[in-house]
Amino acid sequence: MRTINTITELKEWVRAQKKEGRSIGLIPTMGFLHEGHMSLVEKAKAENDVAVMSIFVNPAQFGPNEDFDRYPRDLERDQQLAASAGTDIIFAPSVEEMYPKESSISFSAGELAEKMCGATRFGHFDGVLKVVTKLFHLTEADRAYFGQKDAQQLAIIESLVSNFNFPIEIRRGETVREEDGLAKSSRNVYLSETERSEAPHLHKALQAGKQAALTGEDPKAAVSSYLQAHTSGKIDYIEFLSYPALASAVEGEAILALAVQFEKARLIDNLIFNPKGN
Predict the structure, then answer these.
(1) Closest CA to 136 of 272, 14, 12, 17
(2) Which among 170, 127, 130, 134 has a CA at the least distance from the CA of 151?
(3) For residue 277, is it within any domain?
(4) What φ, ψ does residue 236 adopt, rounded to 5°?
(5) Boundary (domain end) residue, out of 151, 173, 195
(6) What pLDDT does 144 receive?
(7) 149 pLDDT exceeds 90?
(8) What CATH number does residue 222 fall under?
(9) Which of the residues 72, 86, 221, 262 could staple to 32 if both were Cys, CB 3.0 to 4.6 A apart?
């Protein structure tokens, strides 16, 4: 496995792969890898000839009061994990390499970003679109892999690719969880011992909400009641929407999603299911 730090070297590697007719799978990450990322590598390796993982903490998707500076970073650890999973190339550029100058062109994620995480993280998904657009072009990947834990991000990226005819296929990876149900996340390291014991209740709250939806009751009320009874975190949002359209009128597949703010960690989780039981 190689680690590449510059765009020039990455493009040389991509040209060599394309010359040999190899398909490329891209796993975009911000590093501090966990089993969720590894499952995406496994999926990419099964469906492509080579897999490239980007490790880049993207400043464009962080707000002024968010955790960009303290976001966990450990490239040596990430390299070992990525290599053990079969990654062929890590692309780990600096901020200056990715954004050498201020761009005069900006992105707008539109209506899909006006709810859930986007309701309070203004400009977050605009920054996500900025970096994935660059990564899609630089890697010329045939497929890109994203986890369903970040379901709103996934829906927005799928919309970008569809609306603007990007020559890439977006592949979904299921949320990977700890044994107690907590969704794997790089930010879980921020949790105190007490908060870590409470965090699995986020998934249990969603399960209670799903059951309510399946029986014709209010899923958001069920989730809220459960969270207030079992966690000390502040509820940021609870949403029950169609998926991936994120519309209020739920027909077919739906998403039940939440965000809870603990002292140093804001955790998100969701379930995607058909409320008709199909």
Answers:
(1) 14
(2) 170
(3) no
(4) -85, -50
(5) 173
(6) 98
(7) yes
(8) 3.30.1300.10
(9) 72
The per-residue pLDDT of the chain, averaged, comes to 96
Q: Do 61 and 123 sit in the same domain of this protein?
A: yes
CA 20/CA 14 separation, integer angstroms: 10
Q: How confident is the model at residue 224 (pLDDT cuts 50, 70, 90)?
A: very high
Give the range of the structural domain holding residue 207, as residue numbers without chain letter: 186-271
Residue 181 lies in a domain: no
Which pTM was predicted? Answer: 0.94
Residues 6+ apart with CB under 8 A from 186: 30, 31, 32, 33, 34, 71, 72
Q: Which residues are catalytic?
A: 37
pLDDT of residue 142: 98
* Of the candidates 126, 121, 152, 273, the residue with the CA atom closest to the CA atom of residue 210: 273
Residues annotated in the binding site, as ranges? 30-37, 61, 147-150, 153, 176, 184-187
Q: In this structure, are 109 and 203 located in the same domain?
A: no
Annotated binding site for (R)-pantoate: 61, 153
Q: pLDDT (tens digit, 9 = 90+) per residue, 192-219?
A: 999 999 999 999 999 999 999 999 999 9
Residue 167 and residue 190 in one domain = no
What would the pLDDT profile of 239-257 be if each residue is shown by its tens digit?
999 999 999 999 899 999 9
Distances, alpha carbon 170 to alpha carbons 17, 23, 109, 273, in Å: 20, 14, 17, 20
Q: Residue 54: pLDDT above 70?
A: yes
Name the binding residues for ATP: 30-37, 147-150, 176, 184-187
Q: Which of residues 141, 173, 205 is at a domain's end?
A: 173
Q: Is the pLDDT assigned to residue 278 strictly greater than 70?
A: no
- Tell me what pLDDT residue 58 has: 97
Q: How many domains does the chain have?
A: 2
C-alpha to C-alpha distance for 58 and 203, rounded to whole angstroms? 28
Query: Which residues carry a binding-site annotation for beta-alanine?
Result: 61
In a domain, 180, yes or no: no
Backbone angles phi, psi at 71, to 5 degrees: -60, 130
